[in-house]
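step: validate -> pass
step: tokenize input -> pass
step: predict -> running
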Amino acid sequence: MFEGIVSTVLTRVLGDYIEDIDKKSLNISVWSGTINLKDLRLKKATFDSLTVDLPISVVHGYVGTIDAKIPWSSLGSVPVVATIKDVFIVVQPKKCVQWDEKLAQNTKKNALNPKEPSASQDSSFISHLVETIVNNLQLTLENVHIRYEGMKIAFYH
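step: predict -> pass
step: emit ->
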């Protein structure tokens, strides 16, 4: 039962960024407070909204592991420690398209305004748990690799 709640919290916090969080990629030792996620693919659509002002787009994203230590007995006073390792992101230049100011503003607005949960799905306990974890989060990133792949141009004589 408690693992189901933790799965719901993880899906809610990471679901916008990670594709297909499932039992196969999730290893929870709930009572000890350790969570381990392996071999995760990043959602390209999330980065499209975040890089609207940048001349690059994300082609592929991968995270090797996410490890978290949640101190259940002192959740409000001790930080939740999360380590994200082996992040690989491939970017490329955006294709030249005519600039659409209205589209850019809408995309920015959507990226900055988080989705409101529906009343039927929302639970005050889970909402409070998510808020407590996010407010006490201590995050470490290790081995972040960003590869830029330029446009391929063929020269013919």
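step: describe -> Residues 117-122 have pLDDT under 50 and may be disordered.
step: cleanup -> pass
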